[in-house]
Design the sequence.
């Protein structure tokens, strides 16, 4: 396990490549971002918006998938206020929302003058798929990711919306795998093939777990059908420099609230992923598998966007990365697991190449320095 010499990302991250100078591909892609002609990219997006504005009769021009977080707040703001599109926001309602998450989402609708449809999938199905994804591959949020992508595609199809605007391509922004179409013109058509889904096939996870008639919102409409309707799907991060900290300030100018009790355990920021409760334990499982989680993500992000030095990041990551994640009780109850069952399950995913026991405690073999 090696760490990038410029940020603090380890080489255990799937898709990341280190060059001969010990710099990771995410840092190299930040260098490339400085070379991009951003005004020209924004002009391209304006052209796309001008071409589609009003083409859907009195319907919506564009769908923006939202969570109530800072990034989707910014997406909805850009598309409705900067490009003057008639925006329909779509949220797949998390099953364990936080108060901040609910209030920030309400604020988005009120302040940005957009409409919102809420898709609430039945808890019994989601619970079963999450439990299966946790036990089989240690990736419970797989189920939510699946619903978000498929349900938004369904909504676009249903409302004949010519444009769907996603946020960032995680492969581009966080140093993972990038599809050719995303790199060339910001197309998100291949989103379902991104890194969130590489670990396992959906059909393997749901086999003997749920029946097919529960899965409408988990299955994408056929690509051909979407093509016939001429629905275009893009990443806003291709056209506008993606900077989560800046997005927070945009959202805050409308009254967006950060987490009232400060950063969650293991977190560095108090305004990232604060809208629901099940993703904390999910994210922490990455620590067992890959040797890093939230604090590394937060600090890398700050380094890439010029808000933090590597020294400061090393200190922050080492200070909080061994914290145990919040909301374990809620997580156990949701997945109907006892604490013993949970720890037996997650220990199966601990990567012994990078972990060892030191004075009776699990520690990384290769600490960040
Ligand atoms: Zn790096």
Sequence:
């Amino acid at each position: 396990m090696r760490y990038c010499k410029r940020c603090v990302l380890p080489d255990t991250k799937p898709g990341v490549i280190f060059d001969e100078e010990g710099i990771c591909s995410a840092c190299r892609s930040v260098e490339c971002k400085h070379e991009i002609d951003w005004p020209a990219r924004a002009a391209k997006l304006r052209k796309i918006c001008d071409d589609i504005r009003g083409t859907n009769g009195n319907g919506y021009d564009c769908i923006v998938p939202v969570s109530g977080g800072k990034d989707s707040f910014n997406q909805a703001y850009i598309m409705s206020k900067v490009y003057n599109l008639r925006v329909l926001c779509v949220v797949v309602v998390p099953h364990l929302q936080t108060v901040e998450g609910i209030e920030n989402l309400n604020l988005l609708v009120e302040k940005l003058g957009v409409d919102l449809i809420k898709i609430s999938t039945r808890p019994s199905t989601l619970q079963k798929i999450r439990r299966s994804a946790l036990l089989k591959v240690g990736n419970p949020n797989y189920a939510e990711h699946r619903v978000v992508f498929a349900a938004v595609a369904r909504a676009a199809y249903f409302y004949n919306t010519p444009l769907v605007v996603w946020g960032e391509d995680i492969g581009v922004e966080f140093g993972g795998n990038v599809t050719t179409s995303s790199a060339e013109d910001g197309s998100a058509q291949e989103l379902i093939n991104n890194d969130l889904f590489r670990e396992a096939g959906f059909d393997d996870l749901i086999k003997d777990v749920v029946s097919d008639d529960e899965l409408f919102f988990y299955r994408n409409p056929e690509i051909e059908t979407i093509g016939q309707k001429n629905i275009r799907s893009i990443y806003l991060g291709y056209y506008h420099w993606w900077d989560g900290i800046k997005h927070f300030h945009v959202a805050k100018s409308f009254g967006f609230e950060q987490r009232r009790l400060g950063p969650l355990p293991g977190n560095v920021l108090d305004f990232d992923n604060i809208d629901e409760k099940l993703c904390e334990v999910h994210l922490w499982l990455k620590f067992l598998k890959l040797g890093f989680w939230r604090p590394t993500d937060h600090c890398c992000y700050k380094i890439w966007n010029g808000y933090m030095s590597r020294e400061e990041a090393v200190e922050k990551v080492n200070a909080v990365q061994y914290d145990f994640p919040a909301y374990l009780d809620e997580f156990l109850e949701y997945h109907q697991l006892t604490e013993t069952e949970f720890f037996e399950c997650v220990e199966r995913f601990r990567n012994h190449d990078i972990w060892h026991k030191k004075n009776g405690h699990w520690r990384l073999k290769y600490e960040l320095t």
User: Anything to note?
Assistant: The longest strand covers residues 87-92. The chain has a mean pLDDT of 91.
